[in-house]
Amino acid sequence: MNLKPYLLTSIVESKRQDHINVINDRKCNIDMRNLLNYLLIDKVNNSTELYEVLAHKFVSLLRANVKLLILDSIASIYRFSSKEERSPDDKPMIDVISILKRVAHEHNLAVLVINQATTALNTYSAPFLNPRSRVRPALGDLWTKCINSRILLWIDRREGWRDKSRHFQIIFGSNAPTSSPIPFIITKRGIEVRDIITMFRD
C-alpha cells in the first residue's frame, strides 16, 4: 500500500482537533499515538500472501470491532502472481473474494478495494459521459461480477488548468444510484468537496 505517513498523521491530527472539546470534556487520553494504534498496515507480495493474511491474521483481528478494510492495488498482486506461477487459474482470486464477502456480511464492515483500470482516460474527453465504454477493471469480468459498487476516481490534467482537478463518481452500486462527477481536493483534513471549499473561500 502506497500510504504516505506524513499525510495520514496530518489527517488524523486534524480530525482529533475537530473533536478536541468533546475529548477534553470526557477527559479522554487520546493522542496521535493512541489513534494510530487502531490502524494496521500489512504488505503482501503475491496472491498466496494476501490469502494467508486475510484467512488467518485478519480474521483473528475481527474481535477488535474492525469497521474498514482497504486493499490497495489488488490488480498488481494478481498480475505479478500470474507471471511468476504461469497459471491462469482464477481460484486464488475466488478464495479472496469469498473471504471478503463473508467477513463483510458477518461483521458489518466495509471493504474498499482499489483496482487499476485497463483503459487510460483520454486527456480531453469527459469520462463520465460513458464511463462503462472507456474503463474496465484490470481483473476482468470475474471481478466485475463480484463487486457491489464501482467508484471511478480520476485526475483531469488538461492544459490551462491551474492545478490537477480530481473527480469522484459512482458508476454503479447495489444500493446507490449513479452520480454526476464530484470534484474534490485532498487537504490535511482529508477529502473535501472542491465546490464547497471554493464557495466558502469566495
TrEMBL record:
Q: Which GO terms describe its biological process?
A: double-strand break repair via synthesis-dependent strand annealing; resolution of mitotic recombination intermediates; t-circle formation; telomere maintenance via recombination
Which GO cellular component does the record give, naming just one? Answer: replication fork
Annotated Gene3D superfamilies: P-loop containing nucleotide triphosphate hydrolases (3.40.50.300)
One GO molecular-function entry: four-way junction DNA binding
The record ties this protein, via SUPFAM superfamilies, to: P-loop containing nucleoside triphosphate hydrolases (SSF52540)
* All residue ranges annotated as the Rad51-like C-terminal domain in the record: 16-191
Please report the name of this protein according to its UniProt entry: Rad51-like C-terminal domain-containing protein
**Source species:** Theileria equi strain WA
